[in-house]
Amino acid sequence: MAVFDTPEEAFGVLRPVCVQLTKAQTVENVERLQAQLQAVSDSALQELQQYILFPLRFTLKTPGPKRERLIQSVVECLTFVLSSTCVKEQELLQELFSELSACLYSPTSQKPAAVSEEMKLAVIRGLSTLMHSAYGDIVLAFYEPSILPRLGFAVSLLLGLAEQEKSKQIKTAALKCLQVLLFQCDCQDHPRSLDELEQKQLGDLFASFLPGISTALTRVITGDFKQGHSIVVTSLKIFYETASFVMADEQLRRVSEVQAKPAVEHRVAELMVHREANWVKNTSDKVTVLIKKIIECVSVHPHWKVRLELIELVKALLLKCSQSLVGSAGPLLKALVSLVNDESPEVQAQCNEVLRHFADEKVVVGSRAIADVLSENLHSLTTSLPRLMNSQDDQGRFSTLSLLLGYLKLLGPKVNFVLNSVAHLQRLSKALTQVLELDVADIKIVEERRWNSDHLSASAETLASQPWSRIQRRYFRFFTDERIFLLLRQVCQLLGFYGNLYLLVDHFMELYRESVAYRKQAAMILNELIVGAAGLEVENLHERHIKTSLEDLREIVTSILEEYISQENWYLVTCIEAEEVGEELTVRQSGLQALTSGAHTRQLLSSPAFSQPSPTICSMNSNIWQICIQLEGVGHFARALGTDFRLLLMSALYPVLEKAGDQTLLISQAATGAMMDICHACGYESLQHLINQNSDYLVNGISLNLRHLSLHPHTPKVLEVMLQNSDASLLPLVADVVQDVLATLDQFYDKRATSFVSVLHALLVALAQWFPDADNLGQLQEQSVGEKESHLSRRPAALEKGLENTTTAEDIEQFVLNYLKEKDVADGNVSDFDSEEEEQSDPPRVNEDDTGPDVEPPLPVQIQIAVDVMERCIHLMSDKNLKIRLKELLPQKSPPKSWYGIDPSLEFLCIFPFAFLPSTCHSW
Amino acid sequence: MPLAPGTSHTSDFAGRSWSEAWTEGRDTPGDCIPPSMVAPPSPPPPPPDPQFVLRGARSAVHALHFCGGAQGQGHPLLLSGSLHGLVHIWSLQTRRVLATLDGHAGKCVTWLQTLPPGPQLLSQGRDLRVHVWDLAEGRNAIVDSVCLESVGFCRGSVLACGPQRWMLAMPGKGGDEVQILEMPSKTSVCSLKPEAEARPGMPMCLQLWQLVTVAIRIPVLIPVPVLIPVPNPVLIPNPTPEPVLADSSPLPLLLAGYEDGSVALWDVSARKVCSRVACHEEPVMGLDFDSQKARGVSGSAEKALAVWSLDEQRALQVHGTHQLTNPGVADVRIRPDHRLLATAGWDHRIRVFHWRTMKPLAVLAFHSAAVHCLAFATDGLLAAGSGDQRISVWSLYPRM
């Protein structure tokens, strides 16, 4: 097809067609014109614009009934022309605008004329194209007050179409056209940004439309979800762009009190709006109502793009209209905040982005008003939180807590405004503690036992192999969803991160002490507060926020830890131990009143668990959970402090290790978990390493607790574990503590010998491992093996004897006589060794140095220990009660435990014949 | 800080419950607690525990000394001297040995003392040497040493005379002399030899201090509230104790306990005994003096403590004796705030008394061998070293 580049050529071609159209206005003629136009170049068309438009406009203006089809084709042709040309005259623009909008005008009703959908679409496109084709200057001139009635007509027309049409295409087109009319088009044709004066002019003009636009769009937005997300998205966009343009703080600030006299006729002037304070207030109230409606509907919209647009709405309105729309700030922030944990990652990301942006721009922090609104929201939320948690389902709880989390994120350091008010803090803490209430009715908690006394490392490995099971599953009274617990933890962490840690910890410690009912929850919250304060797992939105200093943190952790591991909070009744109930409870009841150190002088209250004569399953469950939570807390503290926690090991390691050996499965798991945390935090390679490196702290605890054995019945267990995990380098320490053990054993032969025997067994096994056979003793080895065998062969006989003597008194007598006789023999035969032994059994061996070189060197320490142990075992052998009890405890193990203790000691001692002889003689 | 443990207690310190609270400290029956003070009929509370125990000295501990925050760490240190000649430096923060000094040829270290200017340490051993150690910046070197002329058990004493000058008293030759040296020049100032007819035997313990001139004990215009604790190191009487009148010159005095059980006050500059009083039947094993109250206490091998005072004519007077259950006091120490007195017993126990009233407050039973030495830190912590190779550290009524 030929292209007519010059206007002359084009004119030649187009003239007949135009003439014909003027004469006979038919669809065919219009179509012919359009066909010809295809062949004309844009520049030529521009020259001939007026000429071509004339017949088309003429057709539209001709009075009388018109066929719809004709008008549609005319509009389409017009649109084509306009799309290729520019409108350079304002008059033309105005006229075309009126003519096009009139096409859909129906004189009878307020609604758009009842015409075909194609027609409507054509007109909408025509209007849109017209506005695009207008020159920039002309467009601005177009928006003068006098155009108000016509523009208003078009706007309401388009709104009506968008709202009432069925066709999605029309709706979309109408909304697009509206965007163009309202200077919101996002296409590339309008690059120029408006200056302040122009903005004000437009703002004044559009202010007239705001009520209409906002209400109509609200209806669209809150309409059926099925109408398609793109319509809602566009409507939201128009809504917030218009609102934020008209209500922009920046514009309103410059609006003078007195309305300038408009240079327009009276009828138009009535339509004009002056945006003074009163108007702003009224409008803002109305818009707030609409915004609430929109948020209510859109925040649960199934399509994520709609929710994403909601975030944009919040962002635009809060950034531009934070003063004018202050009443909406609450709902807007709430909407934003509730989307923080949206299921769509895009929405989440954008939400976080906006929150961060707000934080950076100090929208919240910088503006007192919004911070107030936010704290008010937070307050009302915390007030209703317990009720909501009770009444809502898990989904509802989830969104409520998300909201709480969002508020905290948004308020950042300003959260202290809320916390500093006693009422606020109390409500918040009440809500948290109520929600976190554990369900302690489950009988399994007490039931589950750790029967097999696994080696510590083995249980640690099983834990490490499944890191996700590290956090023990808890059952809460008010919710079952794990995500809710996660949210609650995040809430506490954020509180710890932003809040005044001293204040919070103080408050929750108070709660912790106050009553058993809140103790577990308070401990959980404290644990998470510390994690949060250390900045672990917290995403900081407020860059200039200063974290709690490590110094303060350490101080706080120390005090919490002290509370946790204090007598009345750490040693709770968790099971009815057959061996240990009895007089001990009464002893415990009296409470520990240590005199000396400041840590101990606080008046102890006797724990409620003790005051009950027989603990119920529930109270024991509760105690178990409390210990688990506290253990978890110790792990958290270690993570929070890192290697600084090493200093706290001296007080924390012993109690944790003690719990690791607890019979209740949950407690021992929690304790092992805490040990792992400590290991990682303090930079130890393994649990063995941790124990080995800190044995001195453990020994300190062990030795002090041995002094109060009735209060600390598990102390021997700790020593056992320590011995299993240490090496020969600790011999001096071990020697030291063994003296304590033996001294204590001497006091408690009757009651606690069993636990001591197992310790002594562990000790001798350990000694045998640490000192296998030194090189210089190699030659003694062979000799000793023979000796050992001879003793082994003798053992069954003696064993029998030992067993027998438990049955009849005669046998016992016989045995004792034998024993004494043998002892005499031993004394007589090897008197020199015996004297040496006696000398060594004096605790202070001060004269060691003074002995001359000709005196036999003293026994190595390890041998001395073994000999001492042997001496004790001998006494145990003759203890009737002990054996009977041992048999009850270990029915399947035939050798009594004291033999069990002596066995390795024999193996060990046999490599030192000179010490071995007297001791074994004693034993036989 | 609201969380600090023990804060509830501090308010009680000066008030009523401070003596009541002590009644919880109990001892074996028949010990020094009067019947009226024995705890109520409810089951006996467990005996008090040390705050912590330091292990690893590897032999009996014979000397202890607290050193506040030297070596630029800010954390207090505890120095201990052992029977085998080693000096251990313990960090009270980690409760572990920071360093070990070996300079006494395996012979018992009997006395340890840091010097006020800079982190310098004096250690006296039974190898007849007093070493001066430089501990600054982690150095552990002997910079100087002085030879002793007597193998007794007597510990030395120092007194700061100026910024870089100090006076050292130590047992001298001839069995009964006390030698005074000026350090660091090591020049002998004098030798204090008792008069021939006195025959007090060997000096057993020494304490140098500076006299606060008698006249200033009655200043009307300068209020010296007795209750304000003067920061007074344990062994060295404060070089500038109490506000003094401008013209009163410092006057070094020496308190010496002798083998015959007497305590003598020497005027070092005049080289003569001011006063002498027989306190004990047995040799004096340890003494401590409270220059604020002009009162001192001494312990001996017998089962009594003697409290004596110094009147305005510089005359010693025995105030009274205090009977103990078991004989043998190895060391006595008054806490720097002049409130508590602690004694180290051969019966393995540490006894604590109210210093002003001499009321027995507690018997601390932990050690399994004789307690050889005691030391108070400026913050009130008490350390005790014993023959069982352990050092127990006690926090007795922590002060603020």
UniProtKB/TrEMBL annotation, chain B:
WD repeat boundaries on the chain: 277-318, 364-400
Source organism superkingdom: Eukaryota
Transmembrane segments: none
Keyword annotations from UniProtKB, A to Z: Repeat, WD repeat
Annotated region (Disordered), positions in chain: 1-51
Biased composition (Pro residues): 37-50
Pfam families (alphabetical): WD40 (PF00400)
InterPro entries, sorted: WD40/YVTN_repeat-like_dom_sf (IPR015943), WD40_repeat_dom_sf (IPR036322), WD40_rpt (IPR001680)
SMART domains: WD40
Protein name as annotated: Guanine nucleotide-binding protein subunit beta-like protein 1
Protein source organism: Camelus dromedarius (Dromedary)
